[in-house]
Structures are given as C-alpha cells and as structure tokens.
UniProtKB/TrEMBL annotation:
Annotated source species: Enteractinococcus coprophilus
Swiss-Prot/TrEMBL catalytic activity: nicotinate beta-D-ribonucleotide + ATP + H(+) = deamido-NAD(+) + diphosphate
Pathway linked to the protein: Cofactor biosynthesis; NAD(+) biosynthesis; deamido-NAD(+) from nicotinate D-ribonucleotide: step 1/1
Cytidyltransferase-like domain sequence ranges: 11-170
Protein name per the record: Probable nicotinate-nucleotide adenylyltransferase
Task of the protein: Catalyzes the reversible adenylation of nicotinate mononucleotide (NaMN) to nicotinic acid adenine dinucleotide (NaAD).
Amino acid sequence: MPPARRTRLGIMGGTFDPIHHGHLVAASEAAAEFDLDEVVFVPTGQPWQKSDREVSPAEHRYLMTVIATAANPRFSVSRVDIDRPGQTYTADTLDDIQELRPDADLFFITGADAMEQIMTWKNVEHLWGKAHFVGVSRPGHELTDFGLSEEVSLMQIPAMAISSTDCRERVAQGKPVWYLVPDGVVQYIGKYGLYLDHSGNMQRPT
Ligand code: ATP
Ligand code: MG
C-alpha cells in the first residue's frame, strides 16, 4: 500500500465580526488551488482593548462563523484562539492547531491586508516552518509576498469588495446586508441586535 497522504489543512484566521462572503470565497478558492482537505476557521480572541472600536463578544463571532460554515463538510470552526487568554498571535494559533492535528500540513490563508501585518520582521521568525502561507487578493489592497520566503504563495481570487467594517456600518445605518453575509448570519445579527450602534453595548447570547 502506498504511504497515506498527509492531511492538508487550511487555517483561516479572522475577527469575523461578522463573517461575510469574502471570507468564504477566500477559503474555498485556497482550498481548491492547494488541494486542501479541510479549512478550519479560527475566530480571534477577545482583544483586551482596541483603540478604534469595541469588538463583538467572542461567542457571537464564533457562533456566526459556525452558522456560515455549517453546510460545508470541509469547513469547521476552532475555539483555540477564543479560549486562549490574551491577544491572539498567529504563531500560537498554528502551534495549537498542529498539536490537535499532528497528522496535518498547515496552510495559513490570509487576505492581502492581513498578510502585510503578519509578515513583519518581528513576526516571521516565529512563523517559518509552522505553515505554508497563502496570500489571497483583496480589492483595495496590494498583494505582495515581501520576497521573504518560498513558504509564501500568492493567488488571485474573485474580487469580493466586502468587509466586516462595511457590514457593521450598513447595519448601524439600517441598510441591508443580505447577500453580503450568509442568510443565517443576517438572521443572527437581527436576533441579537448586533451592530445597531457603535457603543459596543451588545447583548451576549444566552
Ligand atoms: P474588518 O473590516 O473588521 O477588519 P474584514 O472584512 O477585514 O473585517 P477580518 O476578519 O479582519 O475581515 O479578516 C479575516 C481574513 O480574511 C483576513 O486575512 C482578511 O485579509 C481576509 N479577508 C477579509 N475580507 C476579504 C475579502 N473581501 N477578500 C479577500 N480576503 C478577505
Ligand atoms: Mg480586517
């Protein structure tokens, strides 16, 4: 018998506040291009404080991510970042997932903007060897590999000019987010009254 092929596991990290179709297309395209068996979505932990805005409670972001990915048998959601106290660092995410899935080769999927933040000199030395990095195109952002390593691949995906920031603003202004986010996420946002104001005064799910 030929040796078993190692699992190819995509990791899609994000705040997912809320998850939208840009995230889902990025994961799906990377999975097809890199022959990934699965993609795990990993919502970030709750930042202690964020200068610009209040991030929704982790449990809301986690549940919206579950709802959005539930129908795809190759997509799942991990709690590793939301259950780890403190700020989320990509190196910790990769270590935790690798410990849970020692059988898997990891592919970290990131949009052009986040790629820029992750690929700082301070960070990269902690990241090399832990995963292959897949940078996907995103409207409004330049996709560059910074010439850092062959562990980074870039790919063009269908342009989805959607951001969570725009979705939050639309809800706050009473505009629809239908078809920008999955139907179940539209309903979840309405059910808990998320994003109605910018004060961060949101109900927690019970
Ligand atoms: P926010 O506006 O709150 O920053 P966001 O839309 O940028 O939200 P994040 O949760 O910050 O979403 O992003 C998670 C990951 O998904 C990042 O790697 C980001 O670059 C990528 N991403 C987000 N939206 C898109 C998109 N429309 N196309 C491609 N990649 C995207
Ligand atoms: Mg973002």
